[in-house]
Amino acid sequence: MREGLLHPPSYRHLAYKETMRHRWANTSLLLLVLAEVATGAFGLAAGASNRAFLNDLHAVFSFGIVAILGWKTALAIGSLKRPAGTRPRYLSLVLAALLLATLGLGFWWSNGVFADISGTSLLTIHIWLGLATAAIILYHAWAYTRRFRIGYSADRRSALRLMTALAAGAAAWGVSEGIGNALDTPASRRRFTGSHERASFKGNAFPTTSWLNDNPRFIDPNRWELTVTGEVSTPLVLSLAELREGGRFEVVEATETLDCTSGWYSTQVWTGVRVGDVLDAAGIEPDTRSVSFVSRTGFSRRMPYGDVRGYILATHVGGEPISHRHGAPLRLVAPGRRGFEWVKWLAAINANSSPSWLQWPFPIE
Question: pLDDT confidence of 118, banded at 50, 70, 90?
């Protein structure tokens, strides 16, 4: 009797062969999901138009993942025919479902579906699902490597398949953008960050989202003070009256766009005083490299000194005093930066001799 009949292949051996046959799909998904996390994170922080390519790459990688999911889904369905063993047998299907949900939410949002779930936007849910997907696919790759002692090395054929998937993703993205522009859909009117317009030039009517959902008690403007400390020769303690018309500094107006990481933007006319004027009054020291803006809540962002001089300490928006939910009595207006860096409920400005990158890319405090 032939050896194959005397020693039929084990389920583990079949799993090994199936995994090896489809390892390019696993490898490609791992690389593309990690690329999605990277472009999503850097794109989320980018407020300047010269980084718009990050969001375009994010979309191309998304369509590339869709192109690969057919092979991955076939592998997952095949795995259900094998005994569960010690590895979660439905992990691949869970991964596929998460990928589809993440991509679907991103697609809906980019095409103007602005629904939320319990006050959480679809874009925010898209981000959290994407992070969960990345964690699972990393575990998935580790589990196969540990169990079968195989690597996810890219041979020539696998590399060509990945490039084909990326080419298909780029083509699909191009067709999608072309159709959106031709039909003048909400997707065609997105800002370069992917955000959609909300209540521009309508004063306090624009959304009131916060990065960490901060919502301090109402601040009495008559008792509020702004401190300016750090690398300065004359620390300041300023009242709101000194920052308004007829006060200590020149009041200016600036039309700037607040672009929130929740997926919306709003262009408004902001009124206030220049950060540079306030720093000059405090006597900035020559070794100053960065400036920190600190909220009453403890939230803070550190930025290069050379960038902040033209920023605005705003008391009004659209001719109205800034509302409490928008950061009254004073909020930072930082053109070219995403909304989470437009610090609300501003309480302190600190000049630093340390560099601006000495902080988390995204605030967690």
Answer: low
